[in-house]
Amino acid sequence: MFDVFCLGVALAVGQGSPAPMPPTITGQATVTQGLPARIPAALPTVGVPGVPVVQKKDAPGEAKVEEPKKEEEKKEDEKKPEEKGHFMKMLEGTDLGCKLEACKIKIDGWAAMSYTCSNRNGATNLPVTWNDRADSFLFQQFWVNIEKGLDKDSKEVNSGWKVAFLYGSDYRFTLIRGFLNNQLMNPRFDIREPNRFEQNIYGLDIPLFYANAWLPGVGGEGTEVAIGRMFTPFGTESVMAPSTPLMSRSYAFQWAPPFFHTGVMADTKVDKNLSVKNMIVNGNDVFFDGSQEWRYVGAYTLTSDDEKTTMVFGTSLGRGKFNAARPNGPAQGVTTLGLAYEPVGRNNFNVFDLTVAQKVDDNFSVGFEAIYGYQQCVPAAATGNALNFGGTAGTAHWLSLVKYLNYNFSDQVSGVARAEAFYDAEGSRTGFEGWYYAGTLGLQIKPMDSVIFRPEIRYDYNGYSRPFNGYHSLFTAGADLIIKF
Fold this sequence. Notes:
globular; 485 residues; 6 helices; 9% helix; disordered N terminus
């Protein structure tokens, strides 16, 4: 059945992080919530994103003694040809497959779907995302990557490009401001929704589109330069379903930093221990709609000699001032909650992110992430209480601490635990003030390379506010299914 599905896709191809959420009506003051943005993991290949996995080395032979190999020879031995996805294997030997291979173009992707049960009556589990719809099935991602990759082992300059297409419910959290935002417009009234508008749950995004080039020897071992729309280059969890450890996302992922940047990047591999990404971009999660502001984005990655420990420091740094003159909400026709929903004005926040990941042994790995963010001149109406800052405007702050534990029970089954504390000091990110505490337990079950099944249970608590449909706490249980091609 799966082969038939992939063959159908092959024939079709052959033919052809924060947004303030809606004002929540309360008995006292108007409260606004916010949907920020965030990114894909920028760490090495991982069992759980952010927790590096070191390839096992073959044991030395017992029957004979060989001369020690030079470092260059060891690297060559460790290189393995990239495994083709199911879709590309289906195209092998066809005219289309031969043309793609001749042009060094690869096509792959996945379909991701989920169901989440909630103990709170209501339409949503917000501020829990991206499985935000309560007691509902979501077709979250049909994601297709088309790319001509770089050859970073080459001593010659070479170029490439990448485009990614997304259809599904997750488009609400990936669609940046000023890009295809007409999909977010729906004037119909719905009392069940936080902002009282019917939501357009499904839509389309093009989350990645960039051209890049490899410059060997520049800055050390070489530098990749890229221009276009790219992921924010730091953080533990990911926009891409197969690359994130659990079905649900953490507050650290959704509410603390951005997801995407449009601009220019230089990714320099200085040596085997240090790599540096420098970007000049037009803002956080924005295209070109007049609200963009130029800023610096950077990520500095240190890897230990044994490749068991990785530390990444990242930042998005600019003016850091809220732009109240640039709302993007119901007054502008945008009513679906998501990344581009900013009814009070444009978010231009600054953020600092530190991740540390360590492989303890062949089966056990741990990860930690700490984030601090702030934004100046935030109107009280864009926080959790209209009386904040004396009813005028001030500086909003947020802090996140997350711990990940991953244990491989077998080649097919691993367990993931995530514990986090997120402090939304003024409620400028989630719409509700106070400390959020959340614990999540899940499994990653891989009956085959192309299939991932991830059940999980999760508990969230905020003792200061009532963000979960009028309650202090929320319990959810669900699972998602990912089929890669």
